[in-house]
Amino acid sequence: SYELTQPPSVSVSPGQTARITCSGDALPKKFAYWYQQKSGQAPVLVIYEDSKRPSGIPERFSGSSSGTLATLTISGARVEDEADYYCYSTDSGGNHFYVFGTGTKVTVL
Amino acid sequence: QLQLQESGPGLVKPSETLSLTCTVSGGSISSGSCYWGWIRQPPGKGLEWIATIYYSGSTYYNPSLKSRVTIFVDTSKNQFSLKLNSVTAADTAVYYCARHWYGSGNYYPDYWGQGTLVTVSS
Q1: What residue of A is the nearest CA neighbor of B48?
Q2: Burial, A43: exposed, middle or buried (Cβ in 10 Å; 0-12, 13-18, 19+)?
């Protein structure tokens, strides 16, 4: 089965830059998507197709992808960005099997 | 504004079938650009993609759950549903329904329901 691997946790001070990585063998060929999930809430899409930002998502959220690594960057992190973040993608087999990454807890303090 | 709402029993006995329905409002489930699907999250753990369906009935399943899962759609009611057979405690989770937008060859959840906790226990 296909897996997307993320670091369990990332800590950053307010105003600093947080980078969350997502590793997957198919990422050179497949887009990555990123979700923010605050405690007790449903996930929210913050980045789609590697680097596009949905309407209403602050500009401090950006995404990139190179080789087998996708990265979500939060520039000038705020306390309200503290949440779990998940990447999402599919394998390259064309069988429409989608997976979420293992998740990263971002702490801003 | 598109809204999705999960409904179904919050408690299911081991070995029985979990059944959930998602009601879509503010948009049509027959939209050609969307799939509809289910995602779950065990308490304190990560997200797991379960299955998606197109309004015409085309389905895709997580291979690890495929033998126990059925997803189906009722366009007349603007609803889609999930059945998971032979449940165990490991199936205890918050179950989310979500619209999956289709773009650039992929579909991905963009609108989510609030989630419903289903506990498997006798």
Answers
A1: A100
A2: buried
